[in-house]
Amino acid sequence: MSNVFPENFLWGGATAANQFEGAYNLDGKGLSVQDVTPNGGVPANPGDKNPLITEQPTEDNLKLEGIDFYHRYKEDIALFAEMGFKVFRMSIAWSRIFPNGDETEPNEAGLAFYDKVFDELAKYGIEPLVTLSHYETPLYLARKYNGWANRELIGFYENYVRTVFTRYKDKVKYWLTFNEVNSVLHAPFMSGGIATPVEELSKQDLYQAVHHELVASASATKIGHEINPDFKIGCMVLAMPAYGMTSNPLDQLAVREFENQNYLFSDIHARGKYPNYIKRYFEENGIDIQFAEGDEDMLKNTVDFISFSYYMSVAQAHNPEEYGSGRGNVLGGLTNPYLESSEWGWQIDPVGLRLVLNDFYDRYQLPLFIVENGLGAKDVLVEGPNGPTVEDDYRIDYLQKHLVQVGEALKDGVELWGYTTWGPIDLVSASTAELSKRYGFIYVDRNDDGSGTLARYKKKSFAWYKDVIATNGQALYK
């Protein structure tokens, strides 16, 4: 068959600084919200109170050391290059550049570290795709200002992005403003640095914080295009399609209402204004968004592309209490009886990825980028002919089925720039702060109790993904 993947398709992997860098207190880095959430930053079920938040970092927080990419970046990037990566998604830790977040002058040691990482990627011809804020709000901004609930964060963020855009204008082309920006509705501390406990946070305050982030995102897009017109700047949302539990029209209406809560973010990023459907929700919930002078015009600085994570779909019903809640990702949802689930209860739905790609492209007619997709599983290290490895056929099966559906979307006419699988190397889970929830093609010898040598071992999926990239997707159809 002829290849459906474009000639310059960007294959790679995705990470976040707080989940794999480590070195949380070295070279002038300040604390982030991640450093005080040793149990992960996502409530286990919708409506749960904030996860455990400590006053200071504790030894049981695996994110403090991560997998020590800070000291092993050359080794890890060499492994990514061996797989044939065209792109590597990573984040800059805001508090490594501005330790508190509100300083006027940056931390040079932090800037110099990312210079070295970008130079190492360039050595192998790997494009960096950089997330400016990936669940890493400086802790000081959360505690002093209540995070994005405070409008002052817009100015601090602008200073940060102007600094890194200027520093790396010749090293980085692809940028994302916020990671899974819509997750702030469900995990306000992790996603938005909002210190107010969830049970005390009003919808007015939450959606006002959303507004501040969206204005800041549009401002970053404007600043970036002024510094380098060749920058490609995108938004990043958590995509989670929903199906009605039945053909009852009320269930279909529940689906629409659920999906609108997520479309709100991409609609504003792509269209530059609040959509009409949200106005009724605001009115019925007593929400009055305060616009400062210039906000309306600032939002018109729309993104160059839409990027998203995709792990699962959910089901929705107008009477969810009759079904019991599912064990979803950040957004929750009901369990679909037609789908299998991962060890963590995330429902596996490759066709859902094709639907998401078509829905986003039909809605916005903008290029798309899949920047997270993968399977978290409890891998077992075994002795292989070339040393320790993991026989992770289940991961290969998951990714192969999803990528075949990506191919179907391309045949549907969707414009897609690239695909970065989540966690190409094992890292600490954002939602649970576990290392046993492994996603990588590369096994890292570190355990949930903090023990291990941090040695890297190639899993079976390493060679599989290398073949997929080398054939530009043709290997998916063998």
From TrEMBL:
Checking SUPFAM superfamilies in the record gives:
(Trans)glycosidases
**What are the start and end residues of every segment in region (Disordered)?**
35-57
The record's InterPro entries line, in alphabetical order, gives: GH, GH_1_N_CS, Glyco_hydro_1, Glyco_hydro_1_AS
Which domain of life does the protein's organism represent?
Bacteria
Keywords assigned: Glycosidase, Hydrolase
Q: What is this protein called?
A: 6-phospho-beta-glucosidase
Specify the species. Streptococcus loxodontisalivarius
**Principal EC category:** hydrolase
Assigned EC number: 3.2.1.86
Locate the active site.
Answer: E372
Q: Which family does it belong to?
A: Belongs to the glycosyl hydrolase 1 family.
**One family name in Pfam for this protein:** Glyco_hydro_1
Q: Name one GO molecular function term.
A: 6-phospho-beta-glucosidase activity
